Amino acid sequence: MKLGYRITRAVLLLIPAILLFSINISLQGASITFGITVLLGAFTTMLYLFFHFDEKINAKIMMEGLADAFFGLVLFTYPTPDNQFFLIIFSAWIFFMGTLQLVTGLASMDDTDYFWLYILAGLTFLAMGFVIMNYSPGFKKSIPALLAIVLILYSGTNLYLLLKRKKDIYEC
In terms of Cα–Cα distance, which of 111, 7, 1 is closest to 54? Predict the structure, then answer.
């Protein structure tokens, strides 16, 4: 079930990226789509934890779910959201997810051969969080493409690491 949960969460986060690239939606549309998908991700996490209440709690899953719920609720409950507000929320979310990747990499240095990829991904997402937060309004047209690239990188990295680690577990 953990594999299904992780794949579902990654696919949910790919939806806004695909919409940003294919339909060329505005930044406000991206905000709504991103907010819905992170709230769906939080709901998926809640369901996963509900059905696996008797297992050991994975701290990373719990933190991702809480972050998704928090940032999704902030996007939908803030009284006057604008594009700059969405960029700050998105950059804070990707910065938080980068921190989780970095911590996971540092914590699994002895357990896995992929710790360097966790660390590289974490540092990349930390940097992208700063880039998006400090993006110039003069480059307004390129912001949705950058957001889509970040979401594709995040989902792709998570799927790759998940499938590689599962493959290694089953080969032993």
Answer: 1
> Domains of the chain: which residue ranges?
2-171
For 60-102, how does the pLDDT look when each residue is reduced to its tens digit (9 = 90+)?
888 888 999 999 999 888 877 788 888 889 999 999 999 998 9
Backbone phi, psi, residue 114, to 5°:
-100, 10
Which H or E element spans position 109?
none
Helix (H) or strand (E) holding 140: none
Give residue for tokens 């493409």: 145
Full-model pTM: 0.85
Q: Which residues contact 150 (CB under 8 A, 6 or more apart)?
A: 94, 125, 128, 132
